[in-house]
Amino acid sequence: MKAVNQMRATNQMSLTFSALSENESFARVAVAAFVSQLNPTMEELTEIKTVVSEAVTNAIIHGYPDGVGEVFLNCNIMDDRMELVVEDKGIGIKDMDLVRQPLYTSRPELERSGMGFTIMESFVDEFEVESEVGCGTRLRFVKRILAPHGAANYEV
Ligand SMILES: Nc1ncnc2c1ncn2[C@@H]1O[C@H](COP(=O)(O)OP(=O)(O)O)[C@@H](O)[C@H]1O
Ligand SMILES: [Mg+2]
Question: Relative to the CA of 102, which ligand 1 atom is closest?
């Protein structure tokens, strides 16, 4: 049994994949499997999967509206913190204040909800967005996985 305050070494993984919608579930499952070593609750795991899903979907459909680029994902685990970076080299965001408003979407024809940023922000402890028009967008999240939890069966 692990001591409660036992320090864990940093562990990291990176993925680069084509910006295709079929890779959204791949990214979600890969991150969930990686962070399961922190013994998150089902609720925490669901929140992490939702964040990955929203971030990767945005990179794919908004970052690269006219073609297929690449999505870069990096996940770091340090003690009880998970840091996740999702990046695209796509079109970038012109008006950050506008796109972060709840219900704003530039693609209503795709039946987007416009709630992606709001949802992502609500599920993490830290959230930053950097974007440059024509260069791409980088999202960084930090989520703490609270006290160690008992072993559970995860379905990722
Ligand atoms: N990676 C990205 N690259 C370019 N634009 C983005 C990106 N992510 C989000 N956006 C812009 O921010 C808007 C709001 O995003 P979001 O809250 O996830 O809502 P939705 O995806 O439903 O449109 C999008 O409609 C889009 O205009
Ligand atoms: Mg979205």
Answer: 17
